[in-house]
Amino acid sequence: MSRLLCLTCRKAEIMCYCKDIEPFSSQPQFVILLHPKESRKAINTGRMAFLHLKNARLMTDSSFDDHEPLQKLLKDPGKRCFLLFPGPMAQDIATWQKPESSAAQEDVFIILDATWSMAGSMYRKSRCLQALPQVMFHPPKPSEFIIRKQPHIDCFSTIETIHHIIELMGTHPSGEHHRLLHVFRDMVQKQIDFEVNAKGIT
User: Fold this and answer.
1) Which of the 8 DSSP states describes residue 12?
2) What number of CA atoms fall less than 13 Å from residue 201's CA on the CB side?
3) Could you tell me which residue, 48 or 41, shows the higher pLDDT?
4) Mean of the per-residue pLDDT values for the chain?
5) Which long-range contacts (CB under 8 A, 24 or more apart) does 118-123 make?
6) What confidence tens digit (pLDDT) does each residue in 44-71 have?
7) Which of 86, 97, 110, 125 is the Cys-Cys partner for 63 at CB 3.0 to 4.6 Å?
8) Residue 44 to residue 124: CA distance in whole angstroms
9) Which pLDDT tens digit goes with each residue over 101-141?
10) In 3D, which of 46, 82, 33 has the Cα closest to residue 163?
11) pTM for this one?
12) What is the Cα–Cα distance from 146 to 144, expressed in whole angstroms?
């Protein structure tokens, strides 16, 4: 018997988290580049983060040199884009001396939402991404996304990553960005409970 799906979060209606989302506009702005294979997964924290952030953008593709919406963004003089990617030239956001900009420019962090191997492929296929200044951070603790296997102990999910960047930059002293983790943690716990109950059925 097929399950009814929420068309917004793509979760089964019984696991839908949409009612718990209180969208807000973030500073900095985030662009989530979602690999097509990742977009088909019901448990996707990039989509969850996008639903939280009024000014975020979600773009799906495996390469982006010919992706018009992203190219338009990269050429926008009012945007200053950075790629979150742990390359050898990446600067740690925690100790980052952010370059000066005019008050009219908005910082945009571009995040690759995919498995590590797919993210590497997206980067190699996209010269426009390779040309961007790279930033990174060291997660202060293991990811709480325990319902999906992480490739390394220092890997964060997309929604944890966005929350941590906002936290490091100190741009939301009111703490509204913590909503990201509240819904994320509740989703993880509901998934664990569902799987435990399913195993208990004989």
Assistant:
1) B
2) 5
3) 48
4) 90
5) 118/35, 118/37, 118/38, 118/62, 119/35, 119/85, 121/62, 122/33, 122/35, 122/62, 122/63, 122/64, 123/85
6) 999 999 999 999 999 999 999 999 999 9
7) 125
8) 23
9) 666 789 999 999 999 899 999 999 999 999 999 999 999 89
10) 46
11) 0.91
12) 5
Read off the amino acid at residue 35: H
Placement of tokens 């370059």 in the chain = 99
Pairing relation of β-strands 91-92 and 106-113?
unpaired
List, in sequence order, the alpha helices (H) in the chain: 36-39, 45-52, 68-74, 116-124, 127-130, 158-169, 179-200
Q: What sign does the dihedral 61-66-72-76 (CA atoms) show?
A: positive
Give the model's confidence band at 202: pLDDT under 50 very low, under 70 low, under 90 confident, else very high: very low
Residue 172, token pair as written in the block: 């939301």
State both tokens at 187. Answer: 């989703």
Sheet holding 134-136, edge to edge: 57-60, 29-34, 106-113, 79-84, 134-136, 91-92
Place of tokens 């435990």: 196
